[in-house]
Design brief:
Blueprint lengths: L5 E7 L12 E6 L5 H9 L17 E6 L3 E5 L10 H17 L3 E9 L6 H12 L4 E6 L6 H16 L9 E3 L8 H15 L1
Parallel strand pairs: 2-4, 2-5, 5-6, 6-7
Antiparallel strand pairs: 1-3, 3-4
The chain binds guanosine-5'-triphosphate and magnesium ion.
Length: 200
């Protein structure tokens, strides 16, 4: 899929203020610093469409980016970010869960996980919560450039084993990506394209 336009539309903390209309959207969620905003820039081929930072907690709002004037990519704050106060953490969690529960235009969420780490309860529990609420999702492994091919393969296999021996009968759709190397770009965009097509 060719990305011919990518435009920032709006940021807010309230799902009710997200763009009106029926355009389908795809949201990126995961721990702070996992690479959600970087992935949006990689997918759209824009250097700084979404704001990124080496310090966790950069994205604090629901951000809508309109792609090819026909669908949205949505950048969300990270969950489980420890350095904000407890009250603002609870507020974060609330507007993120409200977004997933209430946003009718959301056709697929992508849960991002850092491929270097073992499965973390915060991520697998979030996936289970999505499943329990019948919200379709895929998994995007990030930062694949940081591992050698063997280690990469081993970690993916371990993740798959963990999920399929746990809550899931089969592995959800998954993608192996590196935002710095552009890896996985075509696969993620093709997947989005196929869903867009199925909705026409
Ligand atoms: P929050 O907005 O804080 O929740 O973080 P985020 O998930 O949006 O992460 P962000 O995209 O800001 O990236 C965090 C850090 O990881 C930055 O320093 C990025 O340059 C780095 N990073 C993201 N993706 C990759 C990747 O694929 N490879 C490498 N090597 N670094 C990456
Ligand atoms: Mg971010």
């Amino acid at each position: 899929m060719i990305i011919s336009s990518a435009d920032f539309v709006v940021s807010n903390q309230d799902v009710k203020k997200c763009p009106n209309g029926q355009l389908p959207e795809y949201a990126f969620i995961g721990r702070s610093n996992v690479g959600k905003s970087s992935l949006i820039n990689m997918l759209t081929n824009r250097k700084s469409l979404a704001k990124t930072s080496g310090r966790p907690g950069k994205t604090q709002l629901i951000n809508h980016f309109l792609i090819n004037k026909s669908w949205y990519l949505v950048d969300l704050p990270g969950y489980g970010y420890a350095r904000v106060s407890k009250t603002s953490k609870a507020k974060f969690q609330k507007f993120i869960t409200n977004y997933f529960l209430q946003r009718k235009q959301l056709v697929c969420g992508f849960v991002l996980v850092d491929v270097r780490h073992e499965p973390q309860p915060i991520d697998t529990e979030f996936m289970e919560w999505l499943g329990a609420n019948a919200i379709p999702f895929g998994i995007i492994f990030t930062k694949a450039d940081k591992l050698k091919p063997n280690a990469l393969e081993r970690n993916i296999a371990a993740y798959q084993k963990h999920l399929t021996e746990g809550a899931w009968e089969e592995m959800p759709p998954y993608f192996i990506t590196s935002s710095s190397k552009g890896m996985g770009r075509d696969e993620v965009l093709e997947y989005i394209h196929s869903i867009n097509e199925s909705l026409r």
